[in-house]
Design a protein that fits this description.
Blueprint (H helix, E strand, L loop, with lengths): L1 H28 L15 E10 L10 E7 L4 E6 L3 E7 L10 E4 L4 E2 L13 E10 L2 E8 L5 E7 L4 E5 L21 E6 L5 E6 L17 E8 L6 E9 L2 H4 L5 E7 L5 E9 L4 E9 L23 E7 L4 H4 L1 E7 L8 E8 L6 E10 L2 E2 L3
Antiparallel strand pairs: 1-21, 2-3, 3-4, 4-5, 4-6, 7-8, 8-9, 9-10, 11-12, 12-13, 13-14, 15-16, 16-17, 17-18, 19-20, 20-21, 21-22
């Protein structure tokens, strides 16, 4: 009787082993598919067009619109002309009206007063955009007319007087050893973090010392500045390299024209344009600072630098289909929430032939829900 007992025990051990292997196979088959690590850096954002219409009040001559922004604290839109005139706009049901119009300017014609000798000459400074910090302060980006000095200032409202200026790195000026002093590229976008504690400014094109050599695989890199505002003076925290879209670079006219902070985790939306007047192109990207190298100490990004990781980006939407009829987009802004609670994005485009501004309105969704602001 001893031998059969031993066989039964041995058989029981094998049964246990087989059951364990089966359990491992079953559990392994039930695992959810794993997303690549890079995919987890981006939000699943989608963009859909709501409406578009020409806005006569935004077609200002001879000083066209340079920027548009929305102040959620008091539910108002503000436009900024190239020569620094600020107008508060009342909008009539922009997502439901057949022809949205801007009406009523409150207060009319507030002109920015830059600090320094150039303050008395509005034509000495060209502004490119603005963003609200709070009910009494805005940030404005601009440059002097020769293109030798970039400017980012905080202005007291409603007086329009400059009270603070960002200190830019030395690389953001005309270099002393430059044999051919080329104009500096203006800023392409300025935005604040959702908590209004951090400011980000992105150049529209590479600095002269960052312009890549003329070769097919060269990367055109702009610079993104990051400031901390909750200090007596704004503190420069970091800088990162932003690669322009190669397809737009190939047109010879690529530049950034908009920047929006999506959340506090270092995610942004950028609007890039390129092409020609006959075939304009525009693309909206999601960008993340995760893992990006601080480039403040790097004098030139014209050639690849060992160990430098650029900002990573992902295409959200190609807007080129809208450009031929309304012109090249030049302004990107948040707007008031749409009636369904989703986030509104505004894009201003200017037709160079008619000088008419067209406002494109989009719905930004995250898997069908409200995208973070």
């Amino acid at each position: 009787m001893g031998k059969p007992t031993g066989l039964i025990q041995l058989g029981g051990q094998w049964v246990g082993v087989i059951l364990c292997l089966g359990l491992v196979l079953i559990l392994g088959g039930c695992q959810l598919p794993r997303r690549p690590a890079v995919d987890r850096l981006f939000l699943p954002l989608t963009l859909s067009e709501v409406t578009s219409a020409a806005w006569p009040m935004l077609t200002a001559e001879p000083s066209p619109v340079a920027g548009l922004t929305y102040d959620p604290q008091v539910d108002r839109y503000v436009s900024l002309s190239v020569q620094g005139q600020i107008d508060t706009l009342d909008l009539t049901s922009p997502e439901t009206a057949a022809s949205p119009e801007a009406h009523g300017l409150h207060p009319p014609g507030v002109t920015l007063q830059w600090a320094g000798a150039e303050a008395n000459d509005p034509e000495a400074i060209a502004v490119q955009g603005l963003v609200w910090e709070n009910a009494h302060q805005i940030w404005v980006m601009g440059e002097d007319s020769p293109g030798t000095q970039l400017l980012v200032g905080r202005f007291q409202m409603p007086a329009g007087r400059q009270e603070t200026a960002l200190r830019l790195p030395p690389t953001y000026g005309v270099l002393d050893d430059a044999k051919d002093a080329r104009p500096l590229p203006p800023f392409g976008g300025i935005t604040l973090s959702p908590d209004r504690e951090r400011l980000f400014a992105l150049l529209s094109r590479p600095l002269p010392q960052d312009e890549p050599p003329t070769q097919p695989d060269a990367v055109s890199i702009c610079r993104l500045l990051h400031y901390y505002l909750v200090t007596p003076e704004p503190t420069l925290v970091a800088e990162h390299g932003y690669p322009l879209d190669p397809e737009l670079v190939a047109t010879g006219q690529a530049q950034v024209v908009g920047l929006l902070a999506v959340d506090a985790a270092g995610r942004f939306l950028t609007l890039e344009v390129g092409g020609t007047l006959d075939h304009p192109q525009a693309k909206l990207f999601q960008v993340t600072t995760a893992g990006a190298t601080d480039t403040l100490a790097i004098k030139s990004l014209a050639q690849p630098v060992s160990g430098v990781r650029l900002l990573r980006k992902r295409l959200v939407a190609d807007l080129s289909h809208t450009a031929p009829s309304v012109g090249l987009p030049h302004t990107l802004s948040w707007g008031a929430d749409l009636t369904d609670g989703s986030q509104r994005i505004l894009v201003l485009s200017r037709n160079s032939d008619t000088n008419v501004e067209t406002l494109l309105q989009f719905r930004l969704s995250r898997e069908g829900t409200l995208a973070p602001t």
